[in-house]
Amino acid sequence: MMALNNRYDFVLLFDVxxxxxxxxxxxxxxxxMDAETGRGLxxxxxxxxxxxxxxxxxxxxxxxxxxxxxxKAILNKQHERAYQGIGAADLLGGEDKKRxxxxxxAEARDWMCKNFYDVRTFGAVMSTGVNCGQVRGPVQLTFAxxxxxxxxxxxxxxxxxxxxxxxxxxxxxxxxTMGRKFTIPYxxxxxxxxxxxxxxxxxxxxxxxxxxxxxxxxxxFEHDRSAARGEMAARGLYVFKHDSELGxxxxxxxxxxxxxxxxxxxPARAFSDYKVTVDDTGLQGVTLQxxxx
Length: 293
Known about the structure:
By secondary structure, the chain is of the alpha+beta class. It has helices spanning 44-59, 75-85, 95-100, 105-115, 117-122, 165-170, 197-203, 207-219, 251-255, and strands at 8-19, 23-24, 30-31, 39-42, 123-125, 134-136, 139-141, 144-149, 153-159, 177-195, 231-242, 258-262, 274-278, 286-292. A hairpin with an 8-residue loop joins strand 5 and strand 6 (134-136).
């Protein structure tokens, strides 16, 4: 795989209509929100989950594109695979050796990077069970924040069935179960991201991996449908490619070139209610790639 020789900074725009893009389990699954400004939030972890799921679909969970953090995964079992893969299965026996991994930790870490896409992309702490070390990922994401304040709406929903005979008897055969569902009418979210060529060359994240990452950001919402998330779609992916590994401009200056303005004072209910402008003039040592938008 070709090594990465350029730094990248990028902006991802996505929206949601009549859905909950990222519920907070500590708040009854209400949409996440900045308490001071009322703007919606989507965590970086939520976005990475969608990338992982997309890569798993496209690559069929086969090396070198396996997914380390996935549903129902037992992470320590993956660590044991690494030691088996490097021919050091003898270190899996004994509590002391199991914890330390002997002098094979670096080898095991490299094996994990080679085989698991999300490890070499986002990094991982793999020191539980048999020690596979820690990896600092070259791709980092911020929380996504909505362009304007959002309003969480609560909806009563009814299921025309009950779970037990006792419930049915209590309702004299009416058999209804009441519930709650939370949505926001519309939100346009902005996330910022960074790709370090230096860290990429440490983990083996290469050009093919980068191409797959862009593909995931563009298409991940198309394969993440659910009643809770409503209509979600990528609306913009703006990639700033630096001419060097070190970079040719501060990321914040590049991000400030993308402006989002609402077309009117009424609450937005569609992407067409916004105007997105990108200033690509005067860029020196940086090329703007509009993959979406």
